Amino acid sequence: MRVMQAVVLAVVAGGLTGAASGVVVPFVETFEGGVANWRNANNSADLDFVAGGGADGGAYASGVFNYANTSSGGFPPIVLRGQASSGASGGAFVGDWLAAGVTEFLFEIRHDAPVALEITGRIATPGNFPGASFETDFLVEPGVWTTVGITIDENDPRWVSFSNQPFEATFGNVGNIQIGANVPEALVGQDITVRFDLDLVRIVPSPAGLAAFSVLGLGMCRRRRG
């Protein structure tokens, strides 16, 4: 069953939001009503909207990236953006994740590259610095909706960079969510356009907060579907 964004917002208004933060938690961006101002690789346009076939059968957002100007070993390109400057998800991800009790960030992703890809991500302040970058510890095969998640814990080894700033400097003032992929050798400098599909972007509260959410009959959706 699709977790409806409007229902999540109504529950949060009843007191599950961190008092010291504007961030909405728990929150699921379903893209059911559109792409919610999520942007493409170079932040020049909104993502494409697809009404069906998402990770749980519903709507999803989609964007493309061309590998022609990539190089080996460089900073992973950003292919999908949810940023404060564009009002992504109505600002539901913007604020103090630590005060709000966010413990995990997850999303569903699918791509059509000719090879498996290592998905990466970066979470940053509204000014885009400082930021924290993470890498997955598995490859995402093409054509399959796959769950990617990272704990909001500086000791998680998948966090590879904190911009030489304390962990709290980023997660106490989150503004930008940037999703990308490392460049495999097979795609370096190749004029190949890859489509990336995105669905069910979510932030999860502490177990206590999630239990309170579940009491109201609203389970969090976390599925993988081919």
Q: Between the first and last Cα atoms, what is the distance in angstroms?
A: 16 Å
Oligomeric category: single chain
- At CATH level 3, the topology is Jelly Rolls
Share of helix among residues?
10-25%
Based on DSSP secondary structure assignment, what is the total number of beta strands? Answer: 11
Tertiary shape: globular
N-to-C SSE string, H for helix and E for strand: HEEEEHEEEEEHEEH
Q: State the major sheet.
A: 6 strands, antiparallel
CATH superfamily: Galactose-binding domain-like
Q: How large is the share of residues in beta strands?
A: 25-35%
Q: Please report the number of helical segments.
A: 4
The count of domains is 1
The CATH top-level class label = Mainly Beta
> How does CATH name the architecture?
Sandwich
In the predicted model, the low-confidence regions spanning at least 5 consecutive residues are 3-21, 215-226
CA radius of gyration is: 17 Å
Q: Report the mean per-residue pLDDT as an integer.
A: 87
